[in-house]
Amino acid sequence: MKVKTYFKQCVEDIVIPNNWENVSYPGGDVCPSYAYNGYQIMIEHSNPELRELEGYRFVVFIEEEYGYGDKWLLETDSFDDVLKAIEIPTTTRPQSEMLAKDKEDLNNDHSRK
Questions:
Q1: Where do the domains of the chain lie?
Q2: Is residue 108 classed as helix, strand or coil in its secondary structure?
Q3: Which pTM value belongs to this model?
Q4: What distances in angstroms separate CA 52 from CA 7, 38, 44, 59, 109, one per listed residue?
């Protein structure tokens, strides 16, 4: 199945809010993803048998923490759960200690110059 077709199928049964930014990377991501309010929302296929990865349909995390293994994460099959979660400020969520360390190291590197 072509990536563009698959990505369209992943969201064909839901209405993506107009204020969400499409940050999908066809050819690099396994499913479409959107950014809103400091979060990244990944949306898998509605049919679990057609999903690229096993697990929940929706995965939400703090956008800045993409790629960090200790990030706050919401995994759910409920779009309503997603819509509720992304209205909560990211600053109230547990923050990645790995990201905090990277930021500290970067600040220390800049202060030495």
A1: 3-112
A2: helix
A3: 0.86
A4: 11, 25, 8, 13, 39
